[in-house]
Amino acid sequence: MSQYSNQNRVAIVYGLRTPFIKSGTLFKNFSSLDLGKMVCVELLNRTEINPIDIDKVIFGTVLPSIKTSNLSREISLGSGIPPSIPAFTVTSACASATQAFTNGVESVLSGDSEVVIAGGVESISDLPVLFSKNFRGMLLDSSKGQGILQKAKPFLKMGVGDIVPDIPAIAERSTGLTMGESAEIMARQNLISRSDQDQFALRSHVLASKLEKEDIFKKELLKAFVPPNFEEAIYIDNTVQDELTIEQLSSLKPLFDKEYGTITAGNSAPLSDGACALLLMSEQKAKSLGYKPLGYLRSYAYAAVDPREQLLMGPAYSTPLALDKADLSLKDMDLVEIHEAFSAQVLSNLQAFGSRKFAEEKLSRTKALGEVDMDRVNVTGGSIAIGHPFGATGARIILALLYGLQRRQANFGLATVCAAGGLGVSLVLERE
Ligand SMILES: CC(C)(COP(=O)(O)OP(=O)(O)OC[C@H]1O[C@@H](n2cnc3c(N)ncnc32)[C@H](O)[C@@H]1OP(=O)(O)O)[C@@H](O)C(=O)NCCC(=O)NCCS
Fold first, then answer.
1. 3-class DSSP state for residue 320?
2. Nearest CA to 373 among 392, 396, 350, 391?
3. Residue 281: count of CB within 10 angstroms of its CB
């Protein structure tokens, strides 16, 4: 039996995304708000849903601008959705869009909403960079001063260090380690070789570039027109390399442990900009509006590990929970989409799926989840090739899984994402 009874299933009616673009390149002049509006407007146009029928708008993001802290509300207002429709923003590191999605699902299941737009967005190009705490204090004191002298006085205490910008780090607050350093630990402890990591990265590019040549890919993407002239249409993820070789990958220097490390820019997901949105409805509502959904959510589960352990192992913990709720097993999954933060993290999680020792010691289970058939995993590439706008990836993975199931005429799929903080989420989706 699934987590939800059939009458209450939540349908994913449609979804699409912007191309995912390497930060600092083609989308560098777009903010998260621009990208979110772009995807939301196109979703409304393509589905022809009447905006008044939408009950809620929920986007996930990781690094919001302080000017648009409730980014979803701004996306909603800026996309022509009536002001009377509520919107809120969620954050859960790289699982932000899946969090937005499951919040949307719960809203439908509780009867609070019938129709929800849920997705995620990130612009690393438009990173919110802060002043140092000291300098912010001086700015605040200065703003309270009367007259030019009082306004200038707080700055007399200023030292050179005070004007050094405070750039958000991709590091754990609790351990001080960056994601890359954590992946390095996982590679070492799980004996994932550099060569296996590079082979996996190459596979991601080969599969993603194959898909780009297929027409169905265009269903998933919108055409983005970029400033200043808005003449050039971007219709492809610009990090996918169709002529990449294993020699190129193996020649790259390790970045996080320069002496003995194995994690390089080539076997990591590149920093990227992009947005993805999904239209969710109760199954009955979708039917009554005449939509043929892409698929349905059957179950989901979140899990978390201590960040001082292997940080990006979340999927190995959340997947058995989601499969149990779905009353299905790993071998029932026709396709698996797993977020590729690093090759080492994917290979570590897949290894844990197949390990009885892991099952016994970490999950208190007697049997391993099972070996994964690689012909079913990330069959159209993953975040290493396609890119990883933090807040958007969770929604892209759901979309890729649903289009993948459609392409294979298959039914069950698993989508799973690891995230900073030791978080993991897994979703079981079904097409029929
Ligand atoms: C890994 C990371 C630090 C690399 O950042 P970067 O150094 O700015 O990356 P670049 O794109 O400049 O690549 C560095 C070099 O590798 C090369 N390179 C990158 N990918 C390559 C590939 N697939 N094939 C060949 N060369 C590649 C670049 O051309 C560049 O070469 P250069 O130094 O000669 O110009 C960054 O992408 C990152 O932090 N990724 C992980 C993000 C993360 O933590 N996610 C959260 C996970 S939950």
1. helix
2. 350
3. 28
